[in-house]
Design brief:
- The complex is a heterodimer of chains A (about 300) and B (about 350).
- Chain A is mainly alpha-helical and about 300 residues long.
- In chain A, about 75% of the residues lie in helices and about 5% in strands.
- Chain A contains twelve helices and two strands, in the order αββααααααααααα.
- In chain A, strands 1-2 form a two-stranded antiparallel ribbon.
- In chain A, a hairpin with a 4-residue loop joins β1 (about 40-45) and β2.
- In chain A, α4 packs across α7 and α7 packs across α9 (about 200-230).
- Chain A is flat.
- Chain B contains eight helices and 21 strands.
- A six-stranded mixed sheet of chain B has the order 6-7-8-3-9-10, sandwiched between helices.
- The radius of gyration of chain B is 24 Å and the shape is elongated.
- Classes of the chains: A mainly alpha (about 300), B alpha+beta (about 350).
Chain lengths: ~300, ~350
């Protein structure tokens, strides 16, 4: 009896310790989540008095009928499809190169890490210049090969590729850092063994580095997917607050933002948020399933 | 294949890891590279593997100079101290890896890998991952992988140091069996003199990067070239006593250990192996201080001319501290070393 009471007491004591954290999470995460979910079903809502006049699924039917939301959905998917794998591939190669015993190694590591600690807005301005149709560095280089200047940021057809290029560059930093950390954990003896086993550079990379780094690569994929589905700041920074020319670069979160803060359609914004949440959830679950089969721990 | 190391020197910064080392290995011979940790034996092995390049000197495989040949083209098998099995591959994939890399067709590679698994007796483990194997099994996989591509030279870097004592004994016999069966020239690095003596055809003792002696185990044990080798070989260690040659005899304090008619008078260091003491009623008397039971033998500690000595004694009689024993030293078994150069000057 005594022991059981002691256990009970310990449990309450433990709960007491985590209570402050629980309160914070409840107030700032759980409550808004539930609230947003509920709000997505408000069809008539008086903001000034916080009274809901009717509930329904009209918000959902609205967004799926809205061509702007469809554009936002397809843009976001295209964005994720290009940014995540390309960024991971490039960062992997760069990380392997930076892990070699090269001169100025720590200098290069710092350079590649800089984007991570730089403000997105500042980078947006710089890339605005790089992409500039008359003075931009990118068009200058293209000009060297006789290619006509491209109106990168001013035409709907090139705006999304520009955004993707910008985002790939920006996301390299984080991936390179975690890949470098992962590479440090792969013992040098595996590479010595591989060399003795007559494996060339490429086979060392594909048969040793990639499989042994696969937990980190899977992690980078999940983090990349989640953050790319939530893309917003990059759009805002690159196009100076617009969603690209003629909304050509609108994303789900940008749509959500506009509905909420500009149009004051709280219900519609919440419905978009719920849809985004479900998409990310689905992709993360699929990703974890795949990782379970393919990743070597 | 004969292997020749010709005046190899390797420096790491200001540290000389290997210092002007020359060795010649006969075809099919098992060589033990023996020395304390940090003596340069692993460095020597890695230079043989091509993972390190010597600063000075040449390495010859048969009549081919391989000094500048990278490891992937050297045709060697290497067993790492920690085995370095690829954790994400199965045992079969591990053994096949060097074969696939050298463009052996997959079908043939599987057959060859299975043959290797047969040789090291791990057939039933082929589908497992290294993490599902015991240390001894991992060791066998590592040997199978090293031998799979039929190398010209097998290198083993402290292959037994991660195994427990009993398994170590078994595995060293196993390595010897496999090596004999394949008939491959092999180099075995170890810091354990017993291991080196039991497994090698010849032992090269290395100290601070320099070769001390290169000899068959029995001859090396019997005739160590210098004090270092003498002390390094054998457990319990050889007794080293300050002794003096005068009046045709070798004396330790007041005790005459042996006749030494031909020896030059003067101070020497006398090395006496613990097993070289024999009970003799006419010998010198010693009061036993401490007794250590080993099983078959026991070690009796006593003082000889004021200097501590350990002797192996049979277990026929019960020996207790304080007992008095009479000993002599077997004829010809006292090794005399120069007090300055520490080189062997003779035995009496």
């Amino acid at each position: 009896m005594m022991r059981k009471r002691g256990l009970e007491l310990g449990r309450w004591k433990g709960l007491l310790y985590v209570l402050p954290a629980l309160v914070v999470v409840a107030v700032f995460t759980v409550y808004p989540l539930l609230r947003a979910f509920l709000m997505s079903f408000y069809t008539k809502y008086k903001f000034s008095t916080d009274t809901v006049l009717s509930y329904g699924i009209n918000n959902y039917t609205y967004i799926f009928g809205d061509s702007v939301f469809q554009k936002a959905l397809s843009n976001t998917f295209i964005y994720v499809l290009f940014v995540v794998p390309i960024s991971i591939a490039i960062s992997l190669v760069l990380a392997v190169m930076l892990n070699e015993k090269i001169r100025l190694r720590s200098f290069f590591q710092t350079v590649y890490f800089l984007p991570y600690v730089t403000s997105v807005v500042a980078m947006g301005i710089v890339f605005g210049w790089l992409f500039h149709s008359n003075y931009g560095l990118l068009n200058y280089f293209l000009g060297l090969f006789g290619i006509q200047p491209v109106q990168w940021l001013n035409r709907p057809s090139t705006a999304l590729p520009a955004l993707i290029i910008f985002s790939i560059w920006k996301s390299l930093a984080f991936n390179i850092i975690i890949f470098l950390a992962g590479l440090q954990t792969i013992g040098a003896h595996y590479y010595q063994a591989a060399r003795v086993d007559s494996a060339g550079r490429w086979r060392q990379f594909s048969r040793i580095t990639v499989p042994l780094l696969s937990p980190i690569i899977a992690y980078a994929f999940i983090i990349g997917l989640i953050s790319s589905f939530k893309v917003y700041a990059e759009v805002y920074a690159l196009f100076g607050g617009r969603a690209g020319p003629a909304d050509s670069c609108i994303t789900i979160v940008y749509y959500l933002y506009r509905q909420f803060y500009v149009n004051w359609n709280f219900g519609i914004a919440s419905a978009a948020a719920v849809v985004l949440f479900l998409i990310i959830l689905a992709f993360t679950v699929i990703q974890l399933r795949v990782a379970k089969r393919r990743v070597h721990y | 294949m004969e292997v020749r190391l010709d005046r190899l020197t390797k420096r790491f910064g200001s540290v000389v890891a290997v210092d002007d080392l020359s060795l010649e290995l006969n075809d099919g011979e098992m060589i033990g590279l023996l020395g304390p940790s940090g003596c340069g034996k692993s460095t020597t092995l890695f230079m043989l593997a091509g993972l390190l390049t010597p600063d000075v000197g040449e390495i010859w495989f048969g009549d081919e100079n391989v000094t500048a040949v990278p490891p992937e083209k050297r045709g060697i098998g290497l067993v790492f101290q920690n085995y370095a099995l690829y954790p994400h591959m199965t045992v079969l994939q591990n053994i096949m890896f060097p074969l696939i890399n050298t463009k052996v067709p997959k079908q043939k590679a599987v057959v060859m890998a299975e043959e290797m698994a047969e040789l090291v007796q791990i057939r039933e483990l082929l589908a497992r991952k290294p993490s599902e194997l015991s240390g001894g099994q991992q060791q066998r996989v590592a040997i199978a992988r090293a031998l799979a591509k039929k190398p010209r030279l097998l290198l083993l870097d402290e292959p037994l140091s991660n195994l427990d004592a009993r398994l170590r004994m078994e595995t060293r016999e196993e390595i010897r069996r496999i090596q004999r069966e394949v008939g491959i020239t092999s180099v075995f690095v170890t810091h354990d003199q017993e291991e080196a003596m039991s497994i090698s055809d010849r032992i090269a003792v290395i100290r601070e990067g320099a070769l001390q002696q290169f000899e068959e185990p029995q001859l090396m044990y019997r005739n160590p070239q210098n004090l270092f080798v003498a002390k390094f070989m054998g457990t319990p260690a050889i007794n080293i006593l300050e002794a003096e040659v005068h009046g045709g005899g070798l004396y330790c304090g007041d005790i005459r250990l042996a006749g030494a008619n031909k020896a030059k008078a003067g101070k020497v260091l006398a090395g006496i192996r613990p097993e070289s003491f024999v009970a003799d009623a006419d010998g010198f008397a010693a009061t036993v201080g401490h007794v250590e039971m080993l099983g078959r033998d026991l070690i009796a500690s006593f003082e000889l001319g004021g200097q501590p000595v350990k002797a192996l004694v049979d277990t026929e009689t019960i020996l207790r501290p304080g007992n008095v024993l009479n000993f002599r030293v077997k004829e010809g078994r006292i090794l005399c070393f120069d007090t300055e150069t520490k080189e062997l000057v003779g035995s009496v």
